[in-house]
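**Sequence, structure tokens**
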Amino acid sequence: MKIEILTKSENLQTQKTIISKIKEIINYKNLEPGDKLPSERMLSEKFGVSRSNLREAIQKLEFYGLLKSIPQSGTFVANIGVIAMNGMIEDILRLDEPDFKSLVETRILLELKIASLAASRRTEEDLEKMGEALKAYKEKVLNGEDAVQEDLLFHLAIAKACGNSTMNTFMLIITPEIITNFQKYHVCDANLAQRGIGDHQAIFDAIKEQNAALARQKMKDHFIELYNYCYNL
């Protein structure tokens, strides 16, 4: 069995190489929508990569809707034309890992809409989850402890409450990278964390009152310091 320990950049390059080879197989074999790819074992041997790396590449293509894996059956070409598929794969291969500023910009745009929707759609159960996350965040900050994860759990609870599964998924995708960068750049210093208590409470109150415009504004106010910090790095 082949075991590989790769850095983040090496892993990204390995994924791109595998995706490119999968594209070649689809074209070489003239595979059409619904056709089955060779097994993971065969592909990993043919490409000279570990099955875990191969699986990551396949999952990325699944995420973009180009492949579909069916348990106990295999991996199939999705219902998309060859020309469109080749074009999308080329775009995927040109994608780089998002930098911190890109993540912050995406998060802000996403969460302003999420806060508005959450105010309109939240349930009592959603409020309970947000309240628990808010309480955990307050306790950590007041005890002088790092509260980055509790901060993001509060925001994820809001994302769940917005009732839009796609937005919720995007938040789940970018959250691990945000945590890493917050810790790397020491974003949540004591002053910012202390202010976060009041900001979070104001967002929570607006969502509880089902005031969509106010929830959006309070979320926007909350992100002003983060936005300024990010652009002064």
Summary: The beta strands are 67-70, 74-77. Confidence is low (pLDDT under 50) at residues 1-5. The chain has two domains: 8-94, 100-230. The two ends are 43 Å apart (CA to CA).
